[in-house]
Structures are given as structure tokens and as C-alpha cells.
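Morning!

This is the sequence you dropped in the shared folder:
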Amino acid sequence: MADDAPFDPFNQSFTLLDLKKSSHQFGIPELDELIIYQVQSGIVFAAQLGGTLVLLITLLLLAKPEKRRSPIFILNAISLSINFILTLLHCLYFTGAFTKIAAILLQDYSRVPRSEYAKSITTTNLSFLLLLCAEISLILQVRVVCVNIRRNQRQVLVVVSVLVVLIALGFRLTLSIENSIYILNAAYLTDLDWLQSVSNITTSISVCWFCSIFVGKLAFALRERRKLGLRNFGPMQVIFIMGIQSFIVPAIFSLLPYVSSLPNMPFNVLTVITIFLPLSSLWAAATATTRSQPASQPLPSSNSGGLRQRLFGSITSGTTGLLVGLDDDRGPLSPSPVPSHSEGVVLVDIIDMEKQNVPVTGKS
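The structure's back. C-alpha cells below.
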């Protein structure tokens, strides 16, 4: 016939029979879409897996022995380990029985072993544990930079922070429970799209909340440092940069599902936070080490101790997270050797004397 359309080999249909030998028609474009989705998802989780493994090895190799007992280091190591297992299980999912072509098209999961169900349920529960570790780490680090603010302001921050964390954890826990139920029933999460969306949004809001506090406090500290003539690039600038990244990047990944068709983008939010927190500590520590001055070099000014006390309060090594190793322009705050009183007043002594309103002199 003259009006017959030309044959399109890329738009053919095919027939599959289920266990009851009922026929089901499918098209090549549907098959293409399914394969592309699985490949893109595999790339997303494989990239997260590789990045997490590299940083976990780097953290274990480069962290100083005295820092490995700190709560922040333990939390970072646990978070990276959980995220590694989580992304590995995601990769195994896309190579397992749940993603067989016939199983997906015919909605027949009778041949899926119980071990696959266990892996999927473990994955959704690990997501909650990962968020819990990330939130605790953020709380500890914000507590460090806000240790010297007024008591009523600190109480308001604590109340709001706890509320934000509880909301994010509540939605994530609800999603994990509902997701586990859907997995056991071998059903799709189309009815839970709204819950997954709200969970991603509340997670991003919680991260942005803590990062905004952290970045704001560091911005004030950097401005005061510039007034004192301390303009060199150092650990505080590193932490400020990473804080801004931790503020912006998770928000971008949270918005991508609404403007892009790329699959599984929200899963990058927790991975980004898990990677950024220890990465910023390693970068800041490396910067502090390369910029550390000789022990005989005097302090920039006697006011630097007072500035540090006003900005951060009494911070000791081992209690900080991102702030581990910060001491203005003198290098790491650690049990390393410090100038003797014959060479100049030690920074900690300046802080103590300022608390007691004792005049600070240049020599002991």
C-alpha cells in the first residue's frame, strides 16, 4: 500500500509470556529505557563507591595517631564505612535478580532469592544510620564553633538544631520502614514518591542549617583576622571553603530530581556530606602542617589569643572536628612543642590571663 509507513526496526514490539502463559506486549523503546536506567544508576553508585573507598583509605593512612581516638574521627570513619557498604549493596542490586529484564517487565519476582530481599532491606536501613552519623558529626562541629556565644543564643540554636535533626531523622526512618515493607511485598515505591521527596528535602535543610551556622561563624572569624593583618591562606580558609561546598552541593543534588531525569540523584546528598567532612579535616591539617612556623618565631600579636578566645572559646585538641589543628597562623593545636616563656607568651597562657583580667606582656 502506498500510504504504509516505512518499517522502523528501532520501534518494534515483542511478546513475553508469564507463568500462566498470558501474553504481554512490550516495545523496544521500553527495553532501551530500562537498560539506560540501570546503566545510569550503576554509574552513580559506582562513582560513590570509588570515592568513598579512596577517602576511607586516605583517612586511615593520613590521620595522626593521637586524632584517631577523637569522636569526630570515629564518626567519620564509621560514616565512610557505612557509605561504602551502602553503595556496594546498591551496585549488587543492579546486578542481582531484582533487575532481570523478565522479572521487571512481567513483575514476576518468584525467582528472587531471600538473600536479595535481605540486601535491599539492609540498604534502606543503612541509609538511616548514615544520616544519623552525619547529623551527630555536624552537631559536634557546630557545638565547637558556638561554644563561646551567649547562653540564650546557644540554647535557641540547640533547640532549633535538635528540632531540625529530629524532623530529618523522622522522615528518613519512616521512609526506611515503608521502603522495607514495599521490598517484602515486591512492589514499586510509586505511592511513596512524596515521602522520599520530603525526606530528601528535610535532609538537605538540616545539612544547610548546620553549614550556615558553621560558615557564618567562620566568616566572622576570617573578617576579624583580616583586620589584624592575617591574610594568608590557611586552615580556616580551607574549612570555610569546604563549609560552603557542604552548603551548596547537597542542595543542588536535592533539586536535581525536579529538573533532571538522571536517576538516583538524591542518594548523592549523604555521600557528599560523608566525603566532605573528613576531606576538609585532612586538607586543613595538611595546610596547617605546611604553614607551621618554627618554635622560636614569636606570635603575630598579643591580641591573637583574645581574638581566638572570642571567636571559638576554649578549644582543645581532640574535641574539634573540622577545627582540629587550627591555631591562627602558628600551625596545629596539638601536643606538639610550643614556645617556651623565655621566647614569648604561649597562646594558651594569654587566653587564661585574659579570663582573669591579668595584663598580658610580651615576655614572661
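Headline: Residues 293-364 have pLDDT under 50 and may be disordered.

More detail when I'm at my desk.
O.
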